[in-house]
Each structure stands twice: as structure tokens, then as C-alpha cells.
Backbone:
């Protein structure tokens, strides 16, 4: 299992935990719930210590998610593979390509049809 795969698994787990922690929290502002008459139910299960724990865990998980995403960029395997495009290949830019044989670019030793009738 590569390091990048481990980072992907950790990112998915932290993102899932972040969603769960956010969904458990009680809404703090008015929002849509207070405009529809749900403003009095916000105090139903609100304990101050639980709210502080959920706030801290949200910030911790969000920071951890951001750090994991940035570190996973370092774990991407960038082996010495051939570039996918010839424009990215440095050697191809300096290599000269031969010109095709066209009437304007024909060798001197060939005879033309006008020369063969003489």
C-alpha cells in the first residue's frame, strides 16, 4: 500500500468525522429555523461543555483535513516516467526533423521527366 493511499484513507475518515461533528451541533444563529417558529427548540439539549467540545473538535478536524490534503500532495509518486506530451519533452524540442521529399526539395541526382526525353 503506497503512502498516497494511506493519506487518501485518512482524508476520507477525517472528512466523515467532520461531517458527523457538524451535523451533531446545534444551530447557533437565527437562520431558517427561527423564521419558521423553531427558535425556542434550540435550547433543548444545549449543554455549554458539549458545545465547546464540538466547536474545538470541528476546528481540529478541519485543520487536520487541510494538513492531510497538503501532505498528500508530497506523497504523490512522480517517478521518472516519460512525459505524456512531446511538447514537454526537452530532447524532442532540440531534435531536428528531416524534411519530406517534395518537388521544391528534391535531391540533385534525380532525373526529371523533361531530362529523360532528350
Residues:
Amino acid at each position: 500500500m503506497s503512502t498516497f493511499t494511506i493519506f487518501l484513507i485518512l482524508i476520507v475518515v477525517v472528512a466523515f468525522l467532520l461531517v458527523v461533528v457538524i451535523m451533531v451541533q446545534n444551530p447557533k444563529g437565527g437562520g431558517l429555523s427561527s423564521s419558521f417558529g423553531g427558535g425556542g427548540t434550540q435550547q433543548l439539549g444545549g449543554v455549554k461543555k458539549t458545545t465547546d467540545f464540538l466547536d474545538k473538535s470541528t476546528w481540529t478536524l478541519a485543520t487536520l483535513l487541510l494538513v492531510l490534503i497538503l501532505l498528500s500532495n508530497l506523497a504523490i509518486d512522480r517517478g521518472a516516467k516519460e512525459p505524456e506530451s512531446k511538447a514537454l519533452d526537452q530532447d524532442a524540442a532540440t531534435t531536428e526533423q528531416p524534411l519530406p521529399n517534395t518537388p521544391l526539395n528534391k535531391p540533385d541526382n534525380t532525373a526529371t521527366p523533361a531530362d529523360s526525353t532528350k
Helices lie at 3-24, 31-35, 48-74, 90-94, 113-116.
